[in-house]
Specification:
heterodimer, A: alpha/beta, five-stranded parallel β-sheet, elongated, B: mainly beta, three-stranded antiparallel β-sheet, 10 strands
Chain lengths: 808, 114
């Protein structure tokens, strides 16, 4: 046993205090911890009380740390115990049930209480606050017994209480002193929209009414207002505000204003005693929301665990109403004054409203109503005092038209931290890109790519790199000049394909020579591309160039980082047999395959085959290649379908296997994935496939251009057909048109957007002759293909050159 | 560690296909041998200088350059120098061809870890 650990006592078993303890445990702070809570419950999420009231969650659902958590972390928990005083002379915590517990460090996190209006009758039965589980229980009980309720206070809490009581079947009126609801979080426009919305949902309002008395005998019967009018109510919820619970601090002689006064490290006026949460006053502010409490807790936890941390500097407060389907949000300053620049958009039909306030072009506040998707982003912009730019404007006002890139949505490049990684593939930071541009006077993304490596791998970050370039160059930025398919040529894909056809060019060497390539034999980008175009143009005569193939296609297997390979045999439509499984198992054992993995495309991947063993594995499997390495059809994913499924309207397994057999082995611009579903439940996820097919009672629906990968895209509905023959013809025509017009490495998700869905529909569906010609051309190309594994096994020279290693 | 320069005969010229790398183990050292389109033969240690390593033999060859199959670094087969934007050095070894026989000379202090 190590030396005696310091004793840490937490007073208040709520979110702020226990959150701090959790952080201390994470940081490895070594304390003997005791916790005192007045309520009989372990720590629960007070913010979720509205949901308990609404009935969508139970008390159990909102418990944050159950009793087991306290035990597991050796924390002594005293529930139902109220601390009455901290005796700093003797370093003891004294409680209402006579305990005297020693402490070395203490945290006060006593939260706050509902503020009950000091008006006659406020102590009658049937009058509650809305603060804890007990209040919640009282409200649930009242709803069973009484019909009319009044909620005093049109703030966040009051509205949530009102909505909860309406949901419980009560007739509820919200009484508010002012003319605008939530006036401390919303501007007048958003307030009135909110009131209209809640009125639609059955809440009544009595605005501009000051309550002077609660009427009734034992139990409340109604409210009397200062203007003499009355409102009958058998149940009253006081939600006019909260007041920090500072009784203990006061009684212990700790300095208190509105809350317990702390410094930037949450230290109170009493040595070794800290305070976090709603009971706390930091730089003159008491917070009643959850985010600041966590921020305070984080600073205190680090401080108590001996971890260096900057002090707490206060929080930008943002509000979100969490209930009743009305989304409102505000952050920072939201009431305009003459010194603000106001950006606002109100849409009365969609019932949305958005307002952003600028001061000297810095974003200082925002209000959102109805659509709060930009809330997290705006909160960050306000917090960082970000300057408004065109990009940010486009982003937050939804006027942007460019797609996202690899970088996080919701960050303008200007606000992006220097050390933020822009290109995740090559670990290039924003700063590296900015430096490259400023030091070398770059003006194109290509120059940045050549210097830093950003955008060279997956390309997902290209839009962001472009934005950074634009941001650094400002007005001198010009949209990039004509770009070739790589740095070896200034010709575009279409120009190259046209030249090949016009001049009858036959090999990559010839293409590069005749078309005056800058690097005579091309590079790793253009060689595979030109090889593909030649094969697409001359399906029957082009000699595929192994030396122009990327490693995986050259080897017909996927290379892994250690130089071993994976082997994926075909399983048409994701269906296999016990015999095939047995063979896969036997071969995997024999060749010591490291991992057998089920792929996303419904087949098995044998991972970690030694290069020299790859052909032997093929031979002994004696199965066709699944093309898991290729720019070609990978799999046709299927659901169970009408053969077995009680919902199936079409034979998806059969159709999937048939399509996979038909289109396998044919080179395409990029990898190609398909799915066939037997009914609209879409279990095989057609919406993220290059071609997705959904069967229904009486035909098939075809979707194209879906992608679940680097740039997710939901497939577009392309057409509906009645027969299997029509379905195959449509698939054939779409694939062939993609083969003939797609850029090498361009997935259909990009191709559909570049060509336009309607254009593709016109080409394929608008003209029967066109469709049949495309289908005939793909059939001709398909007639030329053969299994690459078999071919390699029959070609000793190539096999030896590629797979065998000699020892000398 | 080898004690002194050693010469290995690694095969005949026609054993090496144009622009298709091939792996040869010379003693303890794993080599990637390339025959460029002009018929010249180059030997590189079959280990990328990229921090993540990996083989080089399967890369695409263009002129005297090799594109690293895993990381797309561009490597000068004559000097082993990695081209911008990347930096580094692949280990290259001298090759002689006499009467159609290919020989590689490995220096004394060649590391053998792969």
């Amino acid at each position: 046993m190590a030396a005696e650990r310091e004793k840490l006592v937490l007073i208040g078993n709520g979110m702020a205090g226990v959150g701090t303890i959790e952080q201390i445990l994470k940081l490895g702070g070594a304390y003997d911890i005791s916790v005192f809570g007045s309520e009989p419950h372990p720590n629960y999420n007070r913010i979720m009380l509205s949901y308990v009231l609404e009935g969508s969650k139970s008390i159990e659902d909102i418990i944050l740390n159950d009793l087991g958590w306290y035990e597991d972390n050796h924390i002594t928990l005293h529930t139902g115990t109220t601390v009455t005083r901290i005796d700093d002379q003797n370093k003891l915590i004294l409680t209402d049930n006579g305990l005297a517990v020693p402490y070395d460090k203490a945290i006060i996190a006593t939260g706050s209480n509902s503020f009950i209006l000091p008006v006659p009758g406020s102590t009658k039965d049937g009058v509650v606050g809305f603060r804890d589980i007990a209040d919640c229980d009282a409200m649930l009980a009242a709803a069973k017994q009484y019909r009319t309720a009044a909620v005093i206070g049109g703030g966040l809490l009051g509205l949530e209480a009102a909505k909860g009581l309406v949901n419980l079947g009560m007739d509820v009126t919200v009484v508010h002193l002012l003319e605008d609801l939530m006036e401390r979080q919303l501007d007048r426009t958003a307030s009135s929209m909110l009131q209209a919305e809640l009125t639609r949902q059955g809440v009544r309002f009595a605005m501009g009414k000051q309550t002077v008395e609660l009427t009734g005998e034992e139990r409340v019967t109604g409210l009397r207002f200062s203007d003499g009018s009355v409102l009958p109510a058998e149940f009253v919820v006081m939600a006019v505000g909260i007041k920090p619970n500072v009784q203990l601090a006061k009684d212990s002689g700790i300095t208190v204003n509105r809350g317990i006064v702390v410094d930037d490290y949450m230290q109170t006026s009493m040595a070794d005693v800290y305070s976090v949460g709603e009971c706390t006053e930091h730089r003159g502010t008491c917070y009643g929301l959850v985010a600041p409490l966590f921020e305070q807790g984080m600073v205190l936890a680090k401080h108590l665990s001996g971890v260096q941390t900057p002090g707490y500097e206060g929080s930008v407060v943002a509000t979100k109403l969490k209930i009743s389907g009305v989304d409102v949000f505000s952050a920072g300053e939201f009431t305009e004054t003459p010194e603000h620049t106001v950006i606002s958009a109100k849409d009365e039909w969609k019932r949305t409203y958005k307002k952003i306030l600028l001061k000297n072009n810095v974003i200082v506040g925002a209000v959102l109503f109805g659509d709060v998707t930009e809330s997290a982003n705006l909160q960050k912009l306000v917090k960082n005092s970000t300057e408004m730019t065109n990009e940010i404007y486009d982003e937050v006002m939804g006027t942007s038209c460019c797609g996202g890139g690899g970088a996080k949505k919701g960050m303008s490049v200007e606000a992006m931290a220097d050390e933020e990684i822009v290109c995740g593939c090559n670990g290039v930071t924003k700063k590296a890109i900015v430096d490259a541009v400023t030091e070398n006077g770059f003006t194109t993304v290509d120059e940045i790519k050549a210097c830093t490596g950003a955008t060279r791998s997956c390309g997902g970050c290209k839009p962001v790199v472009e934005q950074i370039l634009q941001f650094v160059l400002g007005d001198s930025f010009q949209q990039s000049a004509k770009q070739g398919i790589c740095s070896c040529t200034s010709l575009s894909r279409d120009e190259i394909v046209a030249e090949i056809t016009a001049k009858g060019l036959r090999t990559t060497k010839e293409v590069m020579h005749v078309l005056d390539w800058k690097q005579a034999e091309g590079c790793s980008k253009c060689r595979p591309a030109v090889n593909y175009y030649l094969g697409m143009i001359y399906p029957d005569t082009h000699e595929d160039e192994k030396e122009s193939r990327f490693v995986n296609e050259r080897m017909s297997a996927n290379i892994q980082k250690d130089g071993t390979y994976t082997v994926i045999p075909r399983m048409y439509g994701g269906v296999t047999t016990p015999e095939d499984l047995k063979r896969i198992a036997d071969v995997s054992l024999k060749y010591d395959v490291k991992v057998v993995k089920v792929t996303g495309g419904q087949r098995l991947d044998l991972i970690g085959v030694k290069k020299e063993d790859v052909p032997k594995v093929w031979e002994e499997l004696d199965m066709p290649s699944g093309y898991g390495y290729a720019k070609s059809l990978r799999t046709v994913k299927t659901c169970v379908g009408s053969q077995f499924c009680r919902f199936g309207t079409q034979d998806s397994m059969g159709m999937g296997a048939m399509l996979e057999r038909k289109y396998e082995r044919l080179d395409m611009p990029a990898k190609f994935k398909m799915a066939v579903n037997g009914c609209p439940r879409n279990c095989a996820e057609s919406c993220t496939k290059d071609i997705g097919i959904v069967g229904n009672d009486g035909g098939w629906e075809v979707f194209i251009g879906g992608n679940g990968g680097i740039k997710p895209r939901i497939a577009d509905a392309f057409c509906k057909v009645k027969s299997d023959e029509e379905l195959v013809e449509v698939c054939s025509a779409v694939i062939q048109y993609y083969r003939e017009t797609g850029n090498y490495l361009e997935r259909t998700s990009e191709w559909v957007e570049r060509m336009g869905l309607e254009h593709i529909q016109t080409v394929v569906m608008g003209n029967d002759d066109n469709r049949k010609e495309l289908a005939a051309r793909i059939d001709f190309a398909l007639a030329q293909v053969s299994d690459p594994w078999r071919k390699m096994l029959d070609d000793k020279n190539t096999r030896t050159a590629l797979f065998e290693e000699t020892q000398v | 560690m080898e004690r002194s320069n050693r010469e290995y005969t690694i095969g005949a010229v026609e054993d090496f296909m144009l622009q298709i790398g091939r792996v040869v183990h010379a003693g303890e050292v794993e080599l990637a041998i390339f025959r460029t389109s002009d018929g010249a033969i180059y030997a590189v240690r079959n280990h990328s200088p990229h921090p993540k390593g990996g083989p080089l033999a399967e890369g695409i060859v263009s002129g005297y350059y090799l594109y690293d199959p895993l990381h797309d670094w561009k490597i000068d087969l004559r000097t082993g120098e990695i081209q911008a934007p990347d930096r580094g050095q692949a280990e290259v070894y001298p090759v002689t061809v006499e009467g159609g026989v290919v020989k590689v000379t490995l220096p004394a202090a060649v590391t053998t870890l792969n």
